Amino acid sequence: MPTDFPSEPFLGLDDIEAHTTRLLGYKPSESMKSAAKRFYPGDVLYSRLRPYLNKVWLADRTGLCSSEFIVLPSNENVDGAFLKYRLNAMDFVSFANSLNAGDRPRVDFDQIGPFQLPPFSASYQKRIVAKIEELFSELEAGEASLRKARRQLGVYRQSLLKQAFEGKLTAKWRTQNPDKLAEWSWLTLQDIADVTGGLTKNSKRDSLPTRIPYLRVANVYANELRLDEIKDIGVTTAEADKVRLMKGDLLIVEGNGSLDQIGRVALWNGSISNCGHQNHLIRARCRAMAHPAFVLMFLLSPLGRDAIEKQAASTSGLHTLSVSKVQRLPVPLCSLPEQQKIVRILDEQFEAIERNERELDAALKRSETLRQSILKRAFSGRLVPQDPADEPAPALLARLRVERSNTSSSSASSSSSSSASASSSTNSLRRRRALP
Asked: Which residues have a Cβ under 8 Å from the Cβ of 9 and sit 6 or more positions away?
């Protein structure tokens, strides 16, 4: 029980990063109430829940962990770091993931136990680990640079949006086009657009003869539409006309709870005819004075996000938007030609940013492919050469068979004196000897 070890760290599944074998953090054991497993330095923790997430960690301390981990004890024949990397390789992930189906697949040790480890001596395993970590260190340095560059592109995007609505992006254009200018002014969204809600889903709609495709919150993200899954809904003729989307409509997520999810906004691209929207998506249809993409860019900007968050705040502590709150959102407006110029500049800059992001993502993907290639070479014995002094594989396997046989004989002997005690001992020993 965690209360028996209050000073020990406790690891839950969320404390191990997927795919990377990295520890993200831990919790104090005294705050846990459910029974836990104990681990020691050198043990390997493997998440049995959702094996495709590939959560593996080599313990560098004593502690407690969730029962969702399989704890593979330190073993003189299998180096812990070697085992960690072996479980982290994609062929093992594919193997474990194939064992069970469902939304929350789990594996147990009896299922993964038959997976064959290469019969390498402990000294050869350590040399392999040293080479893996040398190569991975080089890869991680490169990946850190790529991720930093990607973050900087995100910062640059936000900087462009900020400058756009401070008038800085079009400062030179304004001096060259005095006849196309109008004073910047602040209006509300309802001053420049028709703002309406959508369809409320209920059981009565199943009996309506007319059905139309409709967008849900799951389809709308920040400047992005995800249209892989579109559902339909029953409507009356009047409702179909009221909620029918037109190309250029702004779709704003009403939502509640998390501030970073509320107010996601995208432009409807008109790719699905006669498409409507649910009530948790608020539609804003701009009038002639406002360019829809200009309004979209503002709502995506730091100024726009700040306005959305202020409107979403409530005395109850929850965050939510409604049609009336969206109508009250402040929006800056300049002349239509200047709006169009701002949209063109931002489109050009964003296209370049997205091109660079794709290149960085491709480089990160190549790095991960190279990482898996290194692991594949390591476990096939091609990453570092064997040493003549290493214990030959046939001798190693023969020795392990003898050790296993002796352990079985010892367990059988002890069972004659105490069946209950022997059962526990055999289970523990089986776990420790099954890995080789």
From this structure: 26, 27, 28, 29, 61, 63, 64
pLDDT of residue 256: 65
Q: Crossing angle, helix 80-88 and helix 90-97, to 10 degrees?
A: 70
For residues 206 and 351, give the distance between their C-alpha atoms in angstroms, rounded to a whole number.
43
Helix (H, G, I), strand (E, B) or coil at 228: coil
Tokens of 233: 């809904």
Provide the token pair at 96.
Answer: 């474990």
The pair of structure tokens assigned to 360 is 């960085």
Residue 394 is encoded by which pair of tokens? Answer: 């046939």
Q: Which residue type occupies 60?
A: D
Judging by beta carbons within 10 Å of its beta carbon (0-12, 13-18, 19+), is residue 360 exposed, middle or buried?
middle
Question: 302-312 vs 292-300: helix axis angle to the nearest 10?
Answer: 80
For the chain, helix (H) and strand (E) counts, in that order, are 13, 18
CATH 3.60.40.10 fits 1-117, yes or no: no
Residues 6 or more apart whose Cβ sits within 8 Å of residue 310:
none
With beta carbons less than 8 A apart as the criterion, state whether 53 and 96 touch.
no
pLDDT value at residue 3: 85
Angstrom CA distances, 395 to 385, 390, 392, 416, stand at 18, 10, 5, 32
Query: What are the residues whose beta carbons fall under 8 Å from the beta carbon of 242, sequence distance 6 or more?
Result: 196
Evaluate whether 11 touches 63 at the Cβ level (below 8 Å): yes
| Ranges under pLDDT 50 in the chain | 419-436
Q: Where in the chain is the domain with CATH 3.90.220.20?
A: 1-117, 185-333
Distance from C-alpha of 165 to C-alpha of 334, rounded to nearest angstrom: 10
pTM of this prediction? 0.77
Q: What is the pLDDT of residue 259?
A: 78
DSSP of 160-178, one letter per residue?
A: HHHHHTTT-TTHHHHHH-G
Fold entry, domain 185-333: Adenine-n6-DNA-methyltransferase TaqI; Chain A, domain 2 (3.90.220)
